[in-house]
Amino acid sequence: MTGNYYHPTGGLPPQTHLTTERAIVTEAYTVIPKGVMTDIVTSTLPGFTHSRSWILARPISGFATTFSQLIVEIGPGGGAPKAEFEPGVEGVIFVTKGKVNLTLDGELHALEEGSYAYLAAGAIWGLENVSDSIVSFQWIRKAYERLDGYEAESFVTSDAEVEPTAMPDTNGAWKTTRFTDSSDLAHDMQVNIVTFQPGGVIPFPETHVMEHGLYVLEGKAMYLLNNDWVEVEAGDFMWLRAFCPQACYAGGPGQFRYLLYKDMNRQIKLT
């Protein structure tokens, strides 16, 4: 079920390139296409060397409210002895290109393409690229909402190690790779991989409380965002506000896969 994982390579379009792109920003959703992820829109992160990042989502008015999402690229010899500086923030990293060493609470983990790490709030962790080529990964961050009697713990796994679950009555055309149990109240978010085979669909407009960040890892599809059908492909990012209707039609020719963030398992705060 695993496949290819798209990562941006940067660069800059020539002066002859048309400025028309597929970028869309609305109150209900945002689409950041892969074509806008050039060298000149990168950010440097504190604590990192020989690195750059594309920040896809951050909490601002009219946009993401619960999370931030970044693409981080680390060159040979680069990294961060300590990557997370904000207390109380949990994270997930998913490697899309290359190999990198993760030191997590004093234990070394060799990560490669498809590796997944959940980094609990309060964990001490860092990254080092000891290879001769770049490493690229998705990094999702969220302020952890603690719940009495529960505490999420860090773990490392991979796309290849987790068996995807077929959605009911889809004959395997729509599967979800869940790296944590949906019913585990220790976790206030999930970062999963959703896979559609050619012809697979979300057969109704999902409208729910979870906010979403979707990064397309592989393939292309038509995606319903609010009232608009938008064509998306590997390397594109979508943000969906809570209750934004969504559906999908994966026309092929290959499988369509995306990394999906959602907040969950907590009561709505009113005070």
TrEMBL record:
Residues 71-140, 193-258 form the Cupin type-2 domain. SUPFAM superfamilies: RmlC-like cupins. It comes from the Bacteria. CDD domains: cupin_UGlyAH_C, cupin_UGlyAH_N. This is (S)-ureidoglycine aminohydrolase. PANTHER family: (S)-UREIDOGLYCINE AMINOHYDROLASE. Transmembrane segments: none annotated. Keywords: Hydrolase. GO terms for molecular function: ureidoglycine aminohydrolase activity. It comes from Arthrobacter livingstonensis. Pfam families: Cupin_2 (PF07883). Coiled coil: none annotated.
